[in-house]
Amino acid sequence: MSFDFITFMKFLEALDIEIEAKFLNAQQTSELPVYSIDGHKVSVYFRNEIRQHNIPAILREKKELPILVVANYLTPKAKEMLREYKFNYLDSYGNAYLNLSPLKVYLENNNASPYVKPSSKIFTQAGGQLIFQFLQDPQLVNETQRYLADNSMISLGSVSKIIQGLSEYGYLVSQDGKDKYQLLEYEELLDRWIPLVNEKILPKYYLGTFSFSVGMKDEWKKKYLRPQIFWSGEPAAALLTNNFFPEKFSMFTTFESNKDIMQTLKLVPNQNGNIKLYKPFWLQTNQMDNVANYLNDINVVPPVLVYAELIYSGEPRNLEIAQKIFNEHIKPKL
């Protein structure tokens, strides 16, 4: 759906409340379109769907004017976070939060359903594992399909179908009509990958929930420094920034049996523990990089996965550190 004044009015009409709206096409103070609602200027941020991991993108917008988020679908968690950050919102189902003194509206109909893009056929578990390769390094789009299949741990046939799908929906474009590709819309693709990795991939590679044994928690940076372990989420943020204290731990390990985990890693199975263990869903091919990470005390997964876990948590302190990781470890490589 394209966004224009007629579309905007449909969202307002769904509220069944008398509200005067105008489009202001002059003296805009933001890159976002500016509208007037009952005399209040707002910058309108429109998307088909807003989930919790989309909130950081909204936080990055200029804020000379109050922001009004307009979406066909807003998840309950996203609405909660928008209210927390004092963003106004409307959805196509008549749910609304407007805090524009003296205009105060809060409607919750609880009748919304997710918006599904037709391109969702490429956002499968296998698709997510391949997309992970491209998000780590956009230049990998020109690697052989065999290389991509091996490193993504998916079938060769899946690679071909997913690349075709990414091309059809504008994420890959052929350069000069040759068999060379360029990755486009990186941030949008990352945005869509975040729920995919957290909801479809990580559960498939989940090993269990554990607790530290006595004396291990305070020394986790050193005592777990070994090539078979890769930190993600909050502990990885601590290692990458040196300015973060993890409360929940996410670890990827090549140890799979509980016996190895308990004896070698000194972790105790505990369904209420604060350590979640996963098997890697990618092939560790560059052993020299792994050794370098090990020797430099930063045995972490690729930053894009750290970012995805932090953003998906929805916790304000994690969102802040995730943005720092994006700016310092992801954006410079684009």
From TrEMBL:
Pfam families: AbiEi_2. It comes from the Bacteria. This is MarR family transcriptional regulator. It comes from Flagellimonas abyssi.
